[in-house]
Amino acid sequence: MTGSATENRRFINCPTVNALNFEEQVVVCPGCSQFGAMCCQHPNDDCHHHRLFFADGACLNNGRGGARGGVGVAAAENDKNLHVSKPFSDLALERDGNPKRTNQIAELRAAIEAVALIERFYDSYGPNGEPNSKPDIRKRKHQNISRSSPQEPPLCVIGMDSQYVVKGMTEWLPIWKENGLKTKSGYEPANLNLFLLLEQDICRVERKWGGGMVICFWWIPRGCNKIADKLAKDAAKLDIN
Ligand SMILES: [Zn+2]
Ligand SMILES: [Zn+2]
Fold first, then answer.
1. Rounded to the nearest whole angstrom, what is the distance from the C-alpha of residue 29 to the centroid of ligand 1?
2. What CATH number does the domain containing 115 carry?
3. Neighbours of 66 (CB within 10 A)
4. How far apart are CA 150 and CA 143, in angstroms?
5. CA of 141 to the centre of ligand 1 (A)
6. Whose C-alpha in 12, 35, 130, 156 is 20 to 30 A from the C-alpha of 120?
7. Contacts of 51 (CB under 8 A, 6+ apart)
8. Each residue of 72-111: pLDDT tens digit?
9. Looking at residues 184-213, what average pLDDT do you find?
C-alpha cells in the first residue's frame, strides 16, 4: 500500500504528504522527467506510484464572438512525446464534431485528452509502466528507481486547477447519477454529454487493464499547472473557428 486513496475518483494522498505545499508534492523523475504526486513510501526518489498528468483548457474570447479553444496535457517536463497541445478545430475532427467553445468545455475536453494520453502511455508501456515490445512513447532508461511491483495496479492522477471538472467528476456526477442524470433541482446539468463522455473513456481505459487501474482527479493551484496552461493557450491560438 502507498498510503494514498481515492474516493469517488478524488485523489487523496497520505496525510504526511498532504501536509506539504502543492509545489513540494509534485515530483519530477530524474530518469525520465515524468511527473508524479509524491508517494509517502518513497519521498526522496521517484517510484512512479502516482503518475501525474497535468491538464488544462484555454478559451480565448470566451463568451464573445470568434472564441478559440485549446487543450494542454503534460505527463513529463522535458518529453515532448508526453505533451499534448490541441486546438478545438483538431479535436472536433477527432471526436464528436461539436464546435462549441467555452472555458468549461475547454476544461472538460482537456480532461478527456488526459485520459487519451493515459491510454497511449499504457498501450506503449503496459500496466506497470514498463516498456513493452514497442515503446514508442518513452525510450529513456531508468536507473536506481524503485518501481511499483508487478502486482501493483497503476494509479493515474489527473491534476487540474479547474474546480468545475474536479468537483464535477468527484462530487456532482455521483449525485446526478442518483437523480437520473438531473441536478437536485431537476434540471439537466450543463455539459452533461461531456461529463459522461469523460467518464465513459475513463471506465474503458481502466477496464482495458483488467481492473485495478484507477484514474482519479486532483485539484491543484493554478500556479502548479503552468506547463499544461501554456500548451492549452498555444493550441487555442492555432484554433480555426
Ligand atoms: Zn521515471
Ligand atoms: Zn512509492
1. 5
2. 3.30.420.10
3. 9
4. 18
5. 8
6. 12
7. 34, 35, 36, 75, 118, 121, 129, 154, 155, 156, 157
8. 999 999 999 999 999 999 987 777 767 789 999 999 999 9
9. 92
Ligand that comes closest to the CA of residue 146: 2
Residue 182 vs residues 97, 103, 107, 177, 191: alpha-carbon distances, Å: 25, 22, 21, 7, 12
Name the residue with higher pLDDT: 16 or 10. Answer: 10
Q: Can you state the angle between helices 226-237 and 103-125, rounded to 10 degrees? A: 110
Give the whole-angstrom CA distance, residue 35 versus residue 47: 11
Distance 122 CA to ligand 2 centre (A): 18
Tally of structural domains, the chain? 1
**pLDDT tens digit string along 151-185?**
466 799 999 999 999 999 999 999 999 999 999 89
- 3-state SS class at 130: coil
Phi, psi of 69 (to 5 degrees): -125, 155
Contact 132, 126 (CB under 8 A): yes
Closest listed ligand to the CA of 2:
2
- Predicted confidence at residue 48, as pLDDT, reads 87
Model confidence at 140, pLDDT cuts 50, 70, 90, reads: very low
- The string of DSSP letters for 29-72 reads -TTT-BEEEPPTT-TTS---SEEEEEEEEEEETTTSTT-EEEEE
Q: Which domain holds residue 19?
A: 5-237
Percent of the chain residues topping a pLDDT of 90: 66
